[in-house]
Amino acid sequence: MQTGPREIVTPYRPIPLAVPEGMAPNEFFNSAENLADLTQNNGLLQNPEGLLLYRKAIGHSNIFDTSIIYNTSRTILDPLGRPVRRTQVPAAVKNVWNRMNQIVVEFMLERYPDPDGHLVLAGEASLDATWALTAPGVPSIRMLHNHFIVFDKAELAAAPLAEPGNPNLTDGGQHSLFQAHMRDVYRAFFDGLDLKILKPCRDGTCRIALTGYPQGLPAWEIAGGAPMLRSVRFWQEYDTILKGFLDFYRSFFSQVSTRNAPMLPDLYFPELAEEKLLFDNDFLKTAKMVRDRCIHDAKYANAIRWQPAFKQLIYRNDNGKLIVTISQNSIGNAITELLGVVVKRKPDAEAYNRAEPALLDQLFEVRRRLAGADLGEGVGTAQWPADR
Question: Residue 163 is part of which domain span?
Answer without folding.
Answer: 1-168+331-388
